[in-house]
Amino acid sequence: MPAARENLLDAAFRALAQRPWSAVRMVDVAAAAGVSRQTLYNEFGSKEGLARALVRREADGYLAGVERALADGVEPRDRLTATVEWTAAVARDNPIVRAMLTGCWSERLPAPTLAAVPSSSAAPAQRRADGPLPSPGDFVRIVRDRALASLTGSGAVRPGSTELLRSCELVVRLALSCVAAPPAEGRIADLVRDALHRQPV
Known about the structure:
The chain is mainly alpha-helical.
């Protein structure tokens, strides 16, 4: 991503921590990023385009963290536990990720439509942001499938891996429950172990 675009997204995210999205002004975002307002409009097209790009970036960051969690550790349960811990931690600290995972968008946040919107942007990153954004159900499927691929070395559901696919989905749904109702400190590993006690992992 070009540096100006990333700086603008950082500035928009910081602005959102201080005021509701409806009060975030494009001119202030541009000034905070050290670029002209015209540069901001050239990059995103509109405030809606900026919102879509911000949500897309946070979604991509969350999924990159899922990949890191699934790659960390040897034991499958450890990798799945790390995925739940990452999901709970990032949702606690990032209101956009929490809204994406739960579908509960407060009036303080941008709430772009999840469907694709017409894009006339010359920036490939903005054309991608103008495409469909993931819904909570999409995240369940994406993370479940990535967990399955991590544990089997393939994303395909092969004979005998149907139960493993269910176990992966169970863990993803457990992660979402930890977002909605965070457990006590240090309890996530116990919850994953208990949930997978009789599951094929």
